[in-house]
Queue: 3 jobs
Job 1
Amino acid sequence: MVSATPFATHPVVDILRFNTCGSVDDGKSTLIGRLLYDSKSLMEDQIEALERSADITGGGQINLANLTDGLRAEREQGITIDVAYRYFATPRRKFIIADTPGHVQYTRNMVTGASAANLSIVLVDARAGIIEQSRRHTCIASLLRIPHLVVAINKMDLVGWSEARFQEIRAQFEEFLPRLDIKDVKFIPISALNGDNVVEPSKHTPWHPGPTLLSHLETVHIASDWNLNGFRLPVQWVNRPNCPTNSRLHDFRGFSGQIAGGIIRVGQKVIALPAGMTSTVKEIWTLDGSVQEAFCPQSITLVLDHDIDISRGSMIIGLDNLPGANVNLQAKVCWMHPRPLQRGKKYWLKHTSNMVQAVVTEIEHRIDMATLEPQAAPSELALNDIGEIQIRTAKPLVYDGYATNRLTGSFILIEQGTNATVAAGMLMPPHEIVKPENGDYVI
Amino acid sequence: MSNYHLDHLQHLETEAIHVMREVAGEFERPALLFSGGKDSICLLRLAEKAFRPSDLPMPLLNVDTGHHFPELNDFRDRRAVQLGAKLIIRKVEDAIAKGIAVPATGEVGRNKLQIPTLLAAIEEFRFDCCIGGARRDEEKARAKERFFSFRDSFGQWDPKNQRPEIWNLYNARINPGENMRVFPLSNWTEMDVWEYIQREKLEVPTIYFSHRRKCVRRVGQWLPVTDIIPPKPNEEVRELVVRVRTIGDIISTGMIESPAKSVEDIITEIAAARVTERGSRADDKTSEAAMEDRKKAGYF
C-alpha cells in the first residue's frame, strides 16, 4: 500500500523505469496523473496549477493529463508530443516514468522512452480492443527486450465492467504474443479516469484477482537487467593527469568508462581491442579509493600492467564469453526520420563509445505491423518502420548480440550533415567471435 | 559490492558519470555551469568522480546576475579554489554596460538577462557544450528535455524537434556555431540530491540551513530584504527563522520558514513537504509556459 508521504525516509532499494504507450486518447497521461494523484505524489502547488487550468479550459473539471503535457502545443492541441519524464516514490520503490506518445509520427519517441525501461505499460481502450498501434507498441517493447509488460485495459467503465469484454481483448492480445520475445505479461482492467485498479482495488471487478497496477509496479521482480557474464569496458576517456610534480600521478594512465557487462577484479587478465593485446588489471581506481572488484553498470577507471594503445572507442574485455568482431553486421532497426533509409548511403554509427562510418548494404525485410510478419526485400525503410538490415562499417565493431547484452548490442545511426539521429539498431548475435592468434587477439 | 547490486543513488551516480565522460570524450571545449547551488554542488562531485586523478578537463562557468546571495558567491569562489578548477565569471551588469543584454522598461529581475550574457560567454570562449545541473522533476518543460539538449546557432531549444535518445547512446555531433547543453542530473529528484549530499558529506552554502533573516511578504512569499528592492513604506519587515529551498536571484527567491539546521533535517523536511521546490520561485509563476519560453530563447 501507499504511504501518505511521497518519499520514503528509509533507504529505497531500487529504481523501476517504466513507460506507458498506447494510441491517442487511450488515456496514458490520465493514467500517469492518476498514479501520481492517488499515490499522493503530487504537491499542493501542482494540484493548484491543475485546478487553475481546469477553470480556464476544462469547465471546472481537473484534467490529469495537464500534469504531463508540459509544452504549449500540447496543451493547445490536447496531445502529448514528446516523452515526458516523471518521478515518484513509494516506500517500496522509486519510479521513473517515461510517458511516450501514441501519435504514429512520434513512435520514435516511444523508442526513446522505452529503451531503458524495465517494464512497459500498453494501454488499450476497452471499447476499441487491440488495434495496429497496440501491436506496434508491443512489437517495439519486444524488440527492445523490455523484460516485463503490463496490458492495462482502460475505460472499463465504458463497457460496463464486462469480464467477457476483458477476456476477449486478452485473447486477441495473446493471439499475437507467441510471435514476440516477451516472457512476463500481466493484464489489468482499469479506469484511469476514475482510478479503478490503479492504486486502489476496484469494487467493479470482483472477477479480477488483482493486483492493482501500482502494487504490481511495486513488487514485480526486476532481477538485474544487467549482464554479469563477460567483462566489457568501452573506454570513454583516457585519464592521464600529466602531473610533473607528482611522480605517481605523472605515470598514471587509466582507462575510464562505464562497465557494460560482467565483473572485473584486480589481477584479472584482459584484452584490449582493437589493439588485440592482453594485459592484467593493476588497479581499479575510484575517487573513494581503489577497489578490488567492480561490476556492470559501475563507472570506473582501470589501470593496466602494460602500456597498450587504447583510446576512446576501444573496448577492454575479459577472457571468457568473448564478443564478436566484424565489419559486416546484421541488425534490426527502427527508423526514426522522415527521410527514409537508403541502401548505399553512408551514416555515422555510434556503438558504445565508438563512432564509425557505416553503409547500409542490404534491406532484408520490413515488418508488417498488421500481421507482424516480415515482408521480404522492401526498397526502403520509412519513418516508424521496423526492419532488418545488413551494414558494413569502416572499422570492425566489437559487439554482442542485443539479446545477450543491451549495451554492447545496440547502436544508433546518425545522418551525416544534419547530425540527426535516424535509427535505433539492435545487433543480431555475431557469427564469429574474437579469436586468439599467436597469443594476441587480432581483429 | 559483494552482491553486485546498486541502490538508486549509485544508479543515478554511474549514469551521471557516464554522461560527463561522454562530454569530455566528444567535445573540444566544454564548460561546467557552477553556481554554488545544491544541484551544481552534486555536479562538481560527479565531475571529480568522472575525471580524477586528472584535473577537471573543463572550466567552471558562472553567469553572475549581480543579484546573487553573497553567501553563494563566496562559496562558489572557495569551492573552485579547493578543486583547483578554473572559474570563469561573466556578469549581467557588464553585459548590460556593453549593450549585449538590454533590460525591458522597468525590468528589475535579472533572470531573462542571463540568457544573452550566457550566450555571449559561449561565443567568447567558443564553448561547444555546457554541462548544467537542471533536473527533469523541477518543471514541466524540463521534464521533456533530453540529457543532450541540442541548441542551434542562436542557442534555441526546439522542443518539437529533439533528437531521440536511446539506451545510453548520446548523439553529441554538432556543426560549427551550434551548441549542446548536457544535464547529467536529468533523472535526479530534489530528494536524491539531498540524499547524495548526505552520503558524500558535501558542503553546501549556509543559506540552505535555518537562520534569522529580515523578510517582507510579497506575492505570497517571504522575500529577503535587500538594497535592490527595499521594503515599501506599507510593507512590514519581519525577522524570521528561514532557509532557502531553491536558489535564484535574491529578489525572487522565496525563503521558507524552517528549523532545519542540518542535511538530515532538510531530508526530513522535504519528505513531508506538500509543495514543490519551484513553488518558491517567482520567475516560474509568470505563466504556465514560463520555462519553455525561456529555454526556447537560450536559457539553460
Job 2
Amino acid sequence: MGDSSEAKRVRHAASGRIMVPNTGIELPLNLDLSRRDILKIAGYGSLAAFIAACGGGSPGSSGSANVTAKGGSVSIGSNASDPGVKKGLADIVSAFTSANGGTKVRVNTVDHGTFQNTITSYLGGTPEDVFTWFSGHRMRFFASKGLVAPIDDVWSSVKGNFTEGFAASVKGDDGHVYAVPTDYYPWAVFYRKDVFAAGNYKVPTNWDDFKSLCAQMKKDGLIPLAFADKDGWPAQGTFDIINLRLNGYDFHIELLTGKQKWTDSRVTSVFKKWSEITQYYSPAFAGLKWEQGADQLLRKQAGMMVFGLFISDEFTASGSKADLDQLDFFPFPDLGTQYDAEKALDAPIDVFMMSKKSPTLGADSGQAKAFLEFMAKGSTQSIYWQSSPGSIPTAKDTDTSQFPALTQKAVQIVSNAKRITQFFDRDSRPDYAGPDGMQGFLLKYLSNPSGSTSSLQGQMQSFWDSLPPE
Amino acid sequence: MSVLARSTAVARPAAIAQRRFRPGRVILHTFLIAMSAVWVFPLFWAVYSSLRPVGDTIQHGYLSWPSEGLSLVNYQTFLTQADLPYYYLNTLVVAAPAVILTLIVASMIAFACTQFSWRFNLTVLMIFTAGNLLPPQVIIVPLYHIYLNTPLPMFGSIDFGQFSYPLFTDNNLLYGQYLGVTLIHVVFQTGFATFVLSNYMKTISKEITESAIVDGAHVLRIWWNIILPLCRPALAAMATLLFTFIYNDFFWALILMNEGNKRPITSALNNMQGEFFTNDNLIAAGAMLAAIPPILVFIFLQKQFIAGLTLGSTKG
C-alpha cells in the first residue's frame, strides 16, 4: 500500500469518488455497499482497481482480466482427494499463486463421496469461494436454489476458449453462466486391439453388425459384453446411449427431468432394443464391481465393454503397459434412426463454480474470478491432466500433441458429437437416479429383460411422482 | 488357522486320556471350528488382500495364489500418502476430551441422583436414560442450524507441526470445529454413562456419604474424594466403551464439519479412493492400520471392557 497512486485511489474512494486506472475517469461511489452491490459493480467490468484496492494487493496490470484481482486470498473446496489428483490441484494452486501476484490459496479437500453426499449442507453452511462440481442438472439445481453465484463476467472473457457444446453445459435455467468447465471423459464401447485381431473381428458401425459380432464372440468362447452393475450406475450408461440413439437428445433430457412420462412407448422401445444384447452380458453381473468387469476385458475373457474412458485407470493400475497399449474403443453403433446424426453421447463434464454463501467471497471475489479464469486455460488444465490422465482438458488452446492416441481419439469423438449429455445421474435428480430409484429399476429390468416392462415403467413413473418437489 | 489346528492337536491327547470319545463332542467341535472359521475368514481375507500388490490381483483375480509374492507395499503407500498420524490426532482431540467430560458430567448426575433423596431425582434419572433411545439422525437439521448460528470467540490456536487446534474456533462459529463435535458426543454419551454409573453407585451404601457429611465434607468433596475413587472400575469400563464408540463414529463429523482435514481417521480411508477407481488392496491395508488403536485399547483394558458389559446389570 506504500505506493502513492494506491494511496491516492484510497483517498478518492474515501471522498466518495473512484478513479478508473489508465482512463482518468472518475466515478461517484457510495461507500455504504452491501456485498451484492460490490458484486454488481464488479460485474460492470473496467473497475479492476476498486477490487484491487479492497483486496489490498497491487493494482492489476493484465489486459483481459478486468474483473479479477491479484494478491489477496482465495479459498477452494475440492473433491480431488486421492493422492494423484490432489497433487494435480496443488500444482495448479502454486502455478496460480505465482501467476497472480502471490494470492494466498487455502484448499479444503474432502473425499469425493463425502463431498457429494454433503453438498447441500456444505453450500448452505460456510463453503469456500470456489468449489469443484459437475455440469448438468446437478449444476442447474444449485444455481436455481441461489447457492452459487453467476459468473457471466468471467465467461465473457474466456468463452472463446470453449466449443459451443461446453458453453451450453455451463448455463443455468435462467440463462446465466454458473461454471467453468475443466475436464470431461466420454462413454464408448471399449475393446482390446489384440483380441479383435486374433478373432478377426471388425469394429461394428450399426446395430446388426454389433449383434452378429456379439454372437460370433460367444461362439468363440468369449463373454461378448463385459457388464458389472453392482454399484447400479453402470447400467445407466447403456440406457442413456440407447435412448439417445433411438429417441434423440431432446426426449432424453425431457424424460430425465420429468417433462416426459416414463410410461411413454418410446421408453418401452429402449428396453426392447436393449433386451437384444443382454444375453451377451457377463454372468452374475449384478454382483460384480466395475473393476471386475474391466478385469474380464483386461484378461481377454470378455470382448467388449460399454463404459467410460476411466476404464483406462484399471488398465494403468494393473502395472502392465502392454495391456494398456491394447485398449481401444469405438462409438456406440448407429440404430438406424434420424437421431444417429446427432452422434450424441455421455461425456460428463467437471466444473469449477463460485459459491454464493462463502463468508469470504465479499473480500475474495476478484481473486476467485481470477482463479476461475486461470482454470479456463489449456496450460492449467494440462497440469491437472498430468495427474489424472483419464479426464480430458476442455480448453481449445490445450496442447493435444502430448496426449496418447486413446485420449486423442476421445477428443475426436466428443468433438464430432452434436449433442453431449452428462450421464443419467448428473442429468436427472440424484434421488431419482439413485439406488431406490432408477438404479434399482434397471437391475429389476435386467433380471428379466425379455418380459413385459409396462408394470416396471409404471413403477418408474409413480416413483417420480412420489418425489417431493426439489 | 494353523495356530488353531495346532492347539487342538495338542489338546486332543489329554482329552482322550481323560474321557471317552463321544460323537456329541465331535459335532460340537466341528461346529465351533466352522463358526470360528466363518468369523475369521473376512479378517483373513482383508489381511491377505492387503499384502498383495493391486496389479497382481487385477491380472489374476482375488481367487489366486500371489504370483509376485506378498509384500508390505500397500502399507508403505498408505503410511506415506495418507497422512495417517495427522488423522489419528484428529480423532484423539475429539475423543479424549469427550470421554473425560462425559465421565465428569455423568458421574455428577449419577452421584446426585443416587446418593441424595430429592423430589425429582428419579425423574431426572429416567429422562437421562430415555435420552438413549433418541436416534441422533432425528435432530440433524435443527442441530446443523444451531451450530451455524452459534458464534464463538477466537483465541488463536494450539499448533503442533501441521496440526492446529483452534481455541475455540477458527471461523467464529461452533460449526466446523473439533470443539463442536466433542460437545455433541458428550451430549449423546452422557445418557448412557449416567445410566450405567448410577446403577453402579446404587451399590455403594449411603452410610458412606452420610458419615462424610457428618465429618463436614462438602458435596463436591464427597463426589471427588469418596465416590469417584470407589467407582474406579466402573469409570475405567465406561472410558473404554466410550472411547470405542466415539472412535468408530463418523456421523457427527460428517454433519457438523465442513473441512476435510479436520475429519477423523475414517476419512483418511475415504481419501484414498478415487472418483471411480478404488485400489481395494490399499484400502484393506488402511483399514488394518485404522483398526489398530481400538484393538490396542481393547487388549490393554480388556478386563474393564468385559466387566463393562455386565456393569450395572444387577442392583446388588
Job 3
Amino acid sequence: MYRIALKMLVGDRGKYLGLVMGLTFAALLITQQSSIFTGLMTRTYSFINDLSQPDIWVMDPKVQFIDDVKPLQDTQLLRVRGVTGVEWAVPLYKGLLKARLEDGNFQIVNVLGLDDSTLVGGPPVMLRGKLADLRTQDSIIVNDVGAATRLAKKPAQPGGRPIPLDVGDVLEINDRRAVVVGICRVSRTFQSQPVIYTTYNRATTFAPRERKLLSFVLVKAADGVDPGKLAQRISDNTGLAAYTARQFKDLTFDFYMKNTGIPINFGIAVMLGFLIGTAIAGQTFYNFTLENLRYFGTLKAMGTTNGVLLRMIVLQALLVGIQGFGLGIGGAALFGYLMRGTQLAFRLVPEILLLAGGAILLIVVFSALISIRKVMKLEPAIVFKM
Amino acid sequence: MSTNGIAVSLTGVTKAYGSGSSRVQALRGVNLEVHLGELLMLVGPSGCGKTTLISVVAAILDHDDGEIKVFDRVLKSMSQVEKTRFRGTHLGFVFQAYNLIPTLTVAENVAIPLLILGTRRARALKRAGDILEAVGLGDKLGVLPAALSGGQQQRVAIARALVNDPRLIVCDEPTSALDAETGRLVMDVLRRSALSEERALIIVTHDNRIFSFADRIARMDDGRIILVEPQVATS
C-alpha cells in the first residue's frame, strides 16, 4: 500500500514538483539566511578566535565588544602580571588608523600592536615572510585580502587589475613609514578593514598621541589554574574587566545581537522562508489530498483502515519533505561554495542543518495533519456520490 | 458463512440524514432479501434511497434502525474496524465513475484489494493479471487507466471488484456513463465473470437497457421497496 501511496504522489507530476519546490525554497532560504547570519556573527569575534594563545582578555570595564576599545594606562599591565596564577601577560594595541597609499589615497586600517618581545597574538597563518620579521625597522604584516583589495596599488595600465600590496612595499600610517615584511591570512572581521600587524611600541608611534594606548592585556593562566577563576581574581584585584576567550566572544556576540538590526533582519528572512514554505507546501499537499479524496474513499470502502491511510499520507509528506530538505540544503551549500571567494559571510554549521530540518519537518507535519484530518473524517459512502 | 442461501437480508431498515427541520428520511423500513447466485437490480427515481441502501448493505454507512445481515453477520453488532475488515474480505465494489487511481497501472489498480489484505505484491499482480485476462483485458496490464475507453475502464473496475473473490458485489450505476453497446458488454462481463452460486450481485441503476441482465428487480420509491419482481423485458 505504501508503494501505491508513493505512486499516487509522484504520478501527479505538477503537484509533486510544486510540493518539492515549495519545500526546497523554504529549506534553501532558511539555510542560506541562517548561514549568512552565522557567518556575520562569527566575524564579530573572529579576531578573538585568531588569537588562540591567551586564556584571558583584560580590558576597561566599560568595553562592550572587541572593537569597542577603551584604552588603559600601561601600568595596568604590571598590575595584571602581579596577580597570582598569571603565567604571562602581554600588551595588545588595537585601533583604527589612517594609512596613506602609494597613490595618495587614504584607507582606514585595523592596526594590531603585538608585544615586542614575544609577538604573542600574531596572525594565525603567514603566507609570505615570517612573524619575526616584525622585529626589523618600520615593519608591518598585512592580511592578504586587504593587500589585494583596499590596499592594492594602481593597475599598471588604465582599466587593468589592481596590483596587490606585497613584501617590500611601503605605506604611510599616520605620516610614519611602514614597510610590508609579510602577508598573512586572518579570519574576516565584521568591519572588513585591512588588518595590519606590527609591534606594540611601533603601533603606539603610529597612533595619535594619547595618554592611554593599551587596548587589552592578554593573559595566559599558569598550569593547573582555572582561567575562569583567574579572570575573576584579576577583575577583583585590578578593578578591570577580565574575560576568558569564550566569555569575551559571548560578550561581543550579545552586543551585536542586542544593539544591531542583524538578528531581526535575518530572523524575518528565515521566518519568511518558513511561512512561504508552509503556505505553499501546506496548500499544495492539502489540494493533492482533496483531489485524491475520491481514491482515499475508494480505498477505505475496499477495506483500508484509517491507520494504513494515515501512514500512507505521512509517507507522502515525508518523501517530499526529505527531497525538499535535501535539495534546499544542497542549493544553500552550493551557493556558499560559489561565493567562497567573495566578501559574503557564509558559515553552514550542523546546527543550521538541524534548524532547517526541524522547520521542514514542522511544515510537512502541518501539511500532513490537515490532510489526515480530512481523510480520517471521510465517510467511505462518499464514493457512491462522486 | 450463509447456510440458507441468503446473502443479504434487511428487516425494517431505516436511515435518516441530518436533524431537526433539515432531517431527510432516506430509508423508511426496508425489507429485502438477496440470494446467493442472484443478480438483483435496485431501480427507482433519483433520491429514492437506492444509493443509501447499497451503502448500508456494504457496511460503509451505518443504518439507524432495523437489522441487516450479510452472510449471517449482523452489521449493527460489528465495530468500525470489523466492518472495514469485513468489506475487505467479503465485498467488491463497482462505481459509476470507475474510481481507478489514475497514476497506477491497470494491473496495480486491480491488485489493490489484495494488497489491502496483505497479499504480496508479486502474487497480487499475478492474480490481477489472471482476472484481467478473464475480462478481456489481458493485454492492458501495464497501461494507465486514462489510456482506456470508458467500457474498458469499467471492466478494469469489475476485475478489481472480483480479484479478492468477494461473496457480495455492489455496483453503483455501472453502465450510466457508457453507450448502449458498451453497457451491454460490461453487463455481460459482469454477469459472466462475477455471478456464481456462491456470490450475489446488487446493482443500482437507472439504465433500463440492462434490466434484462437481472434475476430480480427491486423497485424503490421514497425510501421503501415498493415492488420486487422477477426479470422484466427491457422497454
